[in-house]
Specification:
- The protein is built from six helices and six strands; from the N terminus they run H-E-E-H-E-H-E-H-H-E-E-H.
- The two termini are 30 Å apart.
Length: 187
């Protein structure tokens, strides 16, 4: 799977409008992070390496990354998500697993990821904007259950071709995204 021309234009627009930002190391919790991402064998290694590298660049020798890697990642945390099978408690079970990790590991920051292209999203008929809405929804669901939890949202893009395997993670400002999306919906 590859990004379409339309997706590339959308990503460029989201970056220009400040919705997707380069990741800054100051957003890292020195105690560690609960990382919720898709376990995609072609994208997850880059996400993991990036998080570890970010900790090293911030002067931390060891990154404490507690992983939750369900197929679809943060898409699965939202009740009614097209990524979940109807009539099941997938979202609630996954939320409880993440919140249990917070209590057990005493980590109070969650990094939620979606990635593009994504087979789970494609099979669920979700485009990039719907994935970003689900990402925002996942943050809201976790914050409803624990408002002291710090939740950061990230969109990982695989720009690769067969020759160029460039991948990049972006921080998604939920506030900017919702404002941007509302303006877009008004058109």
């Amino acid at each position: 799977m590859r990004l379409t021309e339309g997706e590339l234009k959308l990503i460029t627009q989201l970056r220009q409008d400040g919705v997707l930002e380069n990741v800054n190391n100051h957003r890292l919790d020195p105690k560690g992070v609960i990382l919720v991402a898709c376990g995609d064998c072609d994208r997850f290694p880059d996400i993991y390496r990036h998080k570890r590298r970010s900790y090293r660049q911030a002067g931390k020798r060891h990154a404490r990354l507690h992983l939750h890697c369900w197929n679809g990642g943060a898409l699965r945390l939202v009740p009614g998500s097209p990524a979940n099978k109807p009539g099941r408690s997938t979202a609630v079970d996954f939320q409880e697993d993440v919140l249990e990790s917070e209590r057990i590991k005493r980590l109070h920051t969650v990094a939620l990821y979606v990635h593009r292209p994504c087979a789970k999203a494609a099979n669920s008929k979700m485009g990039l904007l719907q994935q970003m809405l689900m990402l925002y929804g996942a943050k809201r669901e976790l914050k409803k259950k624990n408002n002291k939890l710090h939740v950061a949202c990230f969109v990982h893009i695989d720009y690769g071709t067969r020759r160029n395997k460039r991948q990049k993670s972006y921080f998604m400002s939920c506030t900017k995204f919702i404002s941007w999306y509302a303006l877009r919906a008004d058109r």
